[in-house]
Amino acid sequence: VYFCERDNMRRKSSETRQHIIDAAYSIFYQSGFLRAGVDAVADAAGIAKRTLYQHFRSKDDVIAAVLERQHQMALHRTRNWADQITGAPDQMVIMLFEKLTHWAAGKQWKGSGFTRAAVEFADLPGHPARKAARRHKAKVEAHLADKFARQGLDAAAQVAREVMLLIEGCQSLVLIHGNLGYIDAARQAALVLVRSHQSTSGETA
Predict the structure, then answer these.
(1) Residue 191's CB: how many other CB atoms inside 10 A?
(2) For the chain, give me the number of helices (H) and strands (E)?
(3) Confidence at 7, pLDDT banded by 50, 70, 90
(4) How far apart are CA 44 and CA 55, in angstroms?
(5) d(Cα 62, Cα 53) in Å, to the nearest integer?
(6) Inter-axis angle of helices 59-83 and 128-150, to 10 degrees?
(7) End-to-end Cα spacing for the chain
(8) Is 8 a residue whose pLDDT tops 60?
């Protein structure tokens, strides 16, 4: 009985922690990491602030947990997008930007949470949010480079970095101007870039 009760307590504690992370994820994405306080997170989770602090030592710990969850979700989404492609690298680029357009067209879209976190904590390079943003963006870039390399693209790592620049840049401009046309412009630029390297690798072969 003792072990069953202890397991139930652990499960309940884990569920409460996850519930806090889910609530904080929504609050931080909508309101910003700096503007949304611990009180707002506790209210959104329907718990007392004291309960929140039983699971997290500080707001920074909550932010770190939220960004870890977002990292797993975003990386899974990116991998799914890329893994759906079985054709040439340019087809992968077309689908990536199509998915980005669909995502950015949503009413609740406010850009990449990691980019926003990095901007909000721009004066704190050692902050957990900055570290999480660097890790996530590096993982996505590495995954793109791996996919390009597997498809025989010349200079795959460099192309992946340049495509990442286009992805990041068009998202920022869509936020600024409210115009999805910037994603289409980035897609066209990415296609020119990728096709030029496809052509080079084909000639080398």
Answers:
(1) 17
(2) 9, 0
(3) low
(4) 16
(5) 10
(6) 10
(7) 68
(8) no
Average pLDDT over residues 157-170: 97
Comparing 8-17, 27-36, 55-64, 153-162, which segment has the lowest mean pLDDT? 8-17
Q: Are 19 and 45 in contact (CB under 8 A)?
A: yes
Sort 52 into a burial class: Cβ within 10 Å, 0-12 / 13-18 / 19+: buried
The residues, ordered by sequence, that sit 6+ positions from 82 with a Cβ below 8 Å of its Cβ are 92, 96, 143, 144, 147
Per residue, what are the HEC states of 30-90?
HHCCCCCCHHHHHHHHCCCHHHHHHHCCCHHHHHHHHHHHHHHHHHHHHHHHHHCCCCCHH
- What's the farthest any 2 CA atoms get from each other in the chain? 71
The model's pLDDT over 36-74, given as tens digits with 9 standing for 90+, comes to: 999 999 999 999 999 999 999 999 999 999 998 888 887
pTM recorded for the entire structure: 0.80
User: d(Cα 97, Cα 103) in Å, to the nearest integer?
Assistant: 10
